[in-house]
Amino acid sequence: MIVTPKIFARLVAIAILAVLLQLSFFSRVELLHTSADILPAVVVSLGLLGGSMTGAVAGFSLGFLVDCLLVAPLGGSSLVLLGAGYLAGLFRERFDIHSALVPPLVCMALTLFAELGFAAVQVMLGVDAPVSVLVVRDMLLKSIYAFFLAWPIYFGLRRALRPALVEEPKVTRRHQPTVLGA
Amino acid sequence: MYRKQVRRRRAVLTLLIIGSFLLLTITYGQSSGGVQRGVSTVFSPLQTVADRALKPARDLVGWFDKTFDARGENSRLEAELATTRIQAVAGQEALQENAQLRKLVALDGAPALAESAYEPVTGRVIARSPTIWNSTVTVDVGSGDGVAVDDPVVSGDGLVGLVASTQGGSAQVRLITDHATAVSAKVVPGGVQGVIRPDVGNPEDLILDFIDSTKDVHGGQTVVTSGWRAEGLASLFPPGLPIGEVTSAPIVEQEASQQVHLRPYADIANLDLVQVLTGGSRG
């Protein structure tokens, strides 16, 4: 990703919009008693589009912003989301797979990774109350929601950042040569 | 050239990881740092606008979710209604008796809140934590409205949580379902005392812990804040705030204390309007 001042401004706007949408909308609506978490999906999409560094820096920044806006120890979300963003970028750099299913599947897997990461950080910092097994259901449902939300998020971000993308996967169809007389 | 890029990439990654751990180490255990306060102050108006703009969309999704739940809820509510009718009759008798007793001892009928001179400040929830590990909400009233850290927060149904940090126009509320929250409470009638702790990941279940196992607690009883005061120390919550209803009280043999499960009265998942109880004498 080529980050010009214009693209940087767009990235900042995307981060702020994502955090506001998450805190004011997605965290406050529940389907099957679980709310969706779009932040890992946004970070993963940025990683898939811009590479490991873009993913890691975006993850750190989004995590920092979320922790600032909530009563949470600073650094916890940053650590987890930078990991998710970096892994997404690494996937893009190491594997040359172009399929419409890649963004949702990677988002789903890395959202689960992020949810496990949040749990690990919390356990590391100490949990002062019993933990319900429903935590597992919450993590799995969040991953499934990420699968479905990944399409609009990934394609929306690709559209917004199109001028900065170094190589955009092209979907090319091979036409079979027409054999005259066949 | 490629090696240089790889080296730079590794350096940035290492820097970010070290930065995260440093932030965690520096800010852990503190309610709110200056940076958090500053960012919250800047973002508070944006959050308010986003909250109002997104309300219709939230209501639409909420309607779908509630429709799914309604079928199961219907049969449970019918059973509850039958029980409540019986309790209401008993309640009417108790009210009459209570009124007579009040006249007899000339007690002031004012509720506990009025006695402790709390001033309720009404606010709207404008943001909510995305993870279940930090169960917090942000409200659109802050220190400018008289809200202070540790002020109790209630909804129309019962206790919601406690103010964890404040800025000029907003405040963060740690909910009773957050793992760091503990509320001293008692079961009524009976007055059995204990401490309420959440069951992390299950916002519809709270645990009343450290209850004397010889005391009889059963389903359907109400749990309220106990609001104790002793030797200069006082509970952060005024007495008598409704918290929830006992759902199960399993009896464990040979245990000095027992755990009681309760369902909170407040709809923690769908909070909208809340009241922050400012000022007042605690406990």
Given the C-alpha coordinates, what overall shape of chain A results? globular
Q: What would you call the structural class of chain A?
A: mainly alpha
Tell me, what's the shape of chain B? globular
Q: State mean pLDDT of chain A (0 to 100 scale).
A: 87
In DSSP terms, counting alpha (H) and pi (I) runs of 4 or more, how many helices of chain B? 3
Strand content of chain B: 25-35%
Instruction: Count every beta strand of chain A, where a strand is a DSSP E run of 2 or more residues.
Output: 0
CATH topology of chain A: Arp2/3 complex 21 kDa subunit ARPC3
Radius of gyration of chain B: 23 Å
What is the name of the CATH architecture of chain A? Orthogonal Bundle
Tell me what the structure shows.
The complex is a heterodimer of chains A (182) and B (283). Chain A has a single domain, classed as Orthogonal Bundle (Arp2/3 complex 21 kDa subunit ARPC3), CATH 1.10.1760.20. Chain A is 66% helix and 0% strand. Chain A has 6 helices and no strands. In chain A, α2 crosses α5. Chain A is globular, with a radius of gyration of 18 Å. The mean pLDDT of chain A is 87. By secondary structure, chain B is α+β, with helices and mostly antiparallel strands. Chain B has a domain of 86 residues: Rod shape-determining protein MreC, domain 2 (Thrombin, subunit H). Helices cover 36% and strands 29% of the residues of chain B. The longest helix of chain B is centred in the first third of the chain and has 72 residues. The interface between A and B is large, with 57 and 65 residues.
